[in-house]
Design brief:
The protein has 131 residues and is mainly alpha-helical. The chain is built from four helices and no strands. The protein is 68% helix and 0% strand. The longest helix has 30 residues.
C-alpha cells in the first residue's frame, strides 16, 4: 500500500456502541420482515395474508433505513437520502393494501361469497337499525 493512501478499513471503524446499535436496528428490521413472510405463509385468506406483510413491511423498512442512515452518516456524510426510501414505503404500502383489499372484496361480493354488504347497499351502514 502506498504511503499517501489511507487504509479503507481504518476509515470504516465505528465506536462499539454505534456498531451494536446499527446491527440491532438492521437485525430487528430483518427479523420483522421474516416474521411478515412467515405470516404470509401461515395465514389462509387473502385478507389475512395482505394484513400481516403490509403492516410489518413498513416497520421493518424504517428500522433498516434508520440503521443505514446512522452507519453512513458516521462513516461518510449525512445520509438523509435513505429516508426517502422509508417515506416512499410509508406512503405507498397502505395505499396499495387498501386498493388490493377493495378489489378483492368487490370480486368476493360478485362471486357471492360470504362478505359483509357494502355501505352503498340498502340496509347497510351505521343507520341500518332504523333509528
Amino acid at each position: 500500500m502506498s504511503p499517501g493512501l489511507a487504509d479503507p478499513m481504518a476509515q470504516a471503524l465505528l465506536p462499539l456502541w454505534l456498531e451494536v446499535l446499527v446491527a440491532a436496528l438492521v437485525l430487528a428490521g430483518a427479523g420483522l420482515a421474516l416474521l411478515g413472510s412467515i405470516g404470509l405463509l401461515r395465514l389462509r385468506t387473502f385478507f389475512e395474508r395482505l394484513h400481516a406483510p403490509s403492516i410489518i413491511a413498513t416497520l421493518s423498512c424504517w428500522l433498516i433505513v434508520l440503521g443505514t442512515v446512522l452507519y453512513f452518516s458516521v462513516t461518510e456524510r449525512l445520509a438523509l437520502h435513505a429516508l426517502l426510501i422509508a417515506w416512499f414505503m410509508a406512503i405507498t404500502v397502505p395505499i396499495m393494501s387498501i386498493l388490493l383489499m377493495r378489489a378483492a372484496l368487490f370480486r368476493a361480493r360478485q362471486a357471492g361469497q360470504g362478505m359483509p354488504p357494502g355501505l352503498e347497499q340498502p340496509g347497510a351502514g351505521p343507520d341500518a337499525d332504523g333509528s
